[in-house]
């Protein structure tokens, strides 16, 4: 339900392309928060037992796969969670839904919940402004989705002043009272920890970051998309580009992210032997990737219109051979335009054919949803609501939240998979997007129209995991990053694009890096290093 471009930003999957994404995790620079967060007992993890995937997942990040929607969906909650209406602020990345009064799916959800869920739904751009307006008001909604990378500042003090500490309700075995919340993985919960306290229900997303995907019908002319060195890939791109058709989409920063993996650039930050941090921009690996990108641009293999909004149609028709998307599951976007097309995912390779590449895992969550301060009875009611909305794939509650009512918003196809009706396509997308961005279960692989795709995606994820690298600062918090990180990133990226496209020489890289460091990069480094978990491994020297 989230657009491809926007999801690159929201999921944090683009962090390694140069973003200083601030996770809403450890707020450790104030009051010993780093130690407190390290000492905190995270919620006990207890996977949902009522469902077995066709293809198993793993703690490494491998997502479970389902070849069809489970028959006889199991109930994951015992009773409607609400006795009183709930107000919430969230965001949608789809067209906003019809309002509750004229949206039968929303009304049926309220009936299942036991009371009205009244949503204030923000859109992009403008969500941080809406958040700030409500935060400054005398009457907060019960729930407010807190995004991880939209520049909301002073998160630690804000949470302490305005929101409810949920630690005693969720830490350790306490979470078992809410089985669907207990089914969220520890890695997801870490993003909801600030200053040693749990502040909300996390929203898991795919843990896989960006990948390059190519149209196999196009790449077969040069022996396929898979390559063994940067030189081989360069030669293939040149052969595919002729002034009408081009090898690569013009999203230079996203493409550069792919090249950086081949040259061994770190995922956001590199952890040195002395536990200090080196940023992506400061490495020779990333600089070499920039020079490689400039060489490709000079060879005219990039589609020339830098303002191209969506390369997907042109990849489908062969005018562009490859583009960058979030995770292998994005093949569904291409299937939607051409049901005969299963796109290939490029597996990272060493730039010289020898060096070990990396694959940058994504952030894995899209923030969390804190509660306003209230009494214990209300807290438990809101937690029960969060438990309902976190119902795992394949449950009755998941069907209600994502598809509505059978015979109204959806029907079952011949294989028993839910398919939206005409009414459902009008009522569901904006509402489901708003609900999903506020509260979600762990992600799965599911494409009912093409079950073989699920098998192929599952296999591709296993290959990518062989080279997986996670951002060592994910799940920690830097206030400087939250305040100025996006601005610094945008300025540095502007210079990078100028270098790649020939408007500036490579020497401009050094000046841009100095500005990044003095403008807040060095301060971010110190703040992240101060809260770096002890278990994070060394990734460089």
From TrEMBL:
InterPro entries: Bact_solute-bd_prot1, TAT_signal. Belongs to the bacterial solute-binding protein 1 family. This is Sugar ABC transporter substrate-binding protein. It comes from Kribbella yunnanensis.
């Amino acid at each position: 339900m989230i657009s491809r471009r926007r999801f690159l930003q929201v999921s944090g999957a683009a962090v390694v392309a140069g973003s200083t994404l601030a996770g809403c995790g450890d707020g450790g620079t104030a009051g010993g928060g780093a130690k407190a967060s390290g000492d905190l007992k995270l919620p006990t993890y207890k996977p949902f037992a009522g469902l077995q995937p066709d293809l198993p997942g793993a703690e490494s990040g491998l997502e479970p796969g389902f070849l069809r929607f489970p028959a006889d969906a199991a109930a994951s909650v015992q009773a409607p969670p609400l006795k009183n209406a709930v107000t919430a602020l969230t965001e949608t990345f789809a067209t906003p839904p019809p309002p509750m009064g004229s949206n039968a799916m929303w009304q049926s959800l309220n009936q299942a919940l036991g009371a009205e869920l009244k949503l204030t739904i923000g859109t992009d751009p403008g969500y941080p402004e809406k958040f700030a307006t409500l935060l400054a008001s005398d009457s907060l909604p019960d729930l407010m989705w807190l995004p991880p990378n939209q520049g909301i500042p002073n998160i630690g003090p804000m949470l302490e002043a305005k929101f409810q500490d949920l630690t005693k309700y969720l830490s350790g075995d306490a979470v078992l009272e809410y089985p669907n919340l207990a089914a969220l993985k520890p890695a997801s919960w870490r993003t909801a920890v600030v200053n040693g306290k749990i502040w909300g229900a996390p929203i898991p997303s795919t843990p896989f970051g960006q990948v390059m995907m190519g149209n196999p019908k196009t790449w077969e002319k040069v022996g396929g998309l898979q390559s063994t060195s940067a030189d081989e890939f360069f030669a293939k791109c040149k052969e595919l580009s002729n002034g009408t058709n081009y090898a690569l989409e013009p999203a230079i920063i996203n493409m550069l992210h792919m090249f950086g993996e081949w040259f061994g650039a770190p995922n956001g930050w590199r952890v040195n032997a002395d536990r200090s941090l080196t940023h992506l921009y400061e490495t020779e690996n990333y600089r070499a990737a920039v020079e490689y990108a400039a060489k490709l641009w000079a060879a005219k293999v990039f589609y020339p219109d830098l303002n191209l909004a969506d390369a997907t149609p042109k990849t489908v028709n062969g005018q562009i051979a490859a583009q960058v998307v979030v995770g292998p599951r994005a093949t569904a976007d291409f299937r939607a335009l051409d049901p005969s097309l299963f796109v290939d995912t490029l597996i990272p390779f060493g730039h010289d054919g020898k060096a070990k590449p990396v694959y940058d895992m994504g952030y894995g969550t899209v923030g969390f949803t804190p509660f306003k301060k209230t009494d214990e009875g209300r807290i438990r009611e809101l937690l029960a609501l969060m438990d309902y909305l976190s119902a795992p794939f394949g449950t009755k509650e998941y069907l209600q939240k994502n598809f509505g009512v059978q015979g109204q918003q959806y029907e079952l196809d011949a294989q028993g998979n839910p398919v939206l009706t005409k009414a459902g396509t009008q009522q569901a997308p904006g509402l489901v997007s708003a609900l999903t961005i506020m509260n979600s279960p762990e992600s799965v692989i599911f494409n009912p129209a093409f079950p073989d795709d699920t098998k192929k995606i599952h296999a591709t994820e296993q290959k990518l995991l062989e080279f997986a690298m996670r951002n060592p600062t994910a799940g920690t918090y830097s206030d400087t990053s939250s305040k100025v990180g996006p601005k610094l990133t945008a300025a540095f990226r502007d210079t990078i694009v100028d270098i790649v496209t020939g408007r500036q020489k490579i020497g401009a890289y050094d000046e841009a890096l100095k500005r990044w460091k003095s403008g807040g990069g060095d301060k971010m480094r110190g703040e992240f290093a101060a809260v770096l978990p002890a278990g994070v491994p060394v990734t460089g020297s």
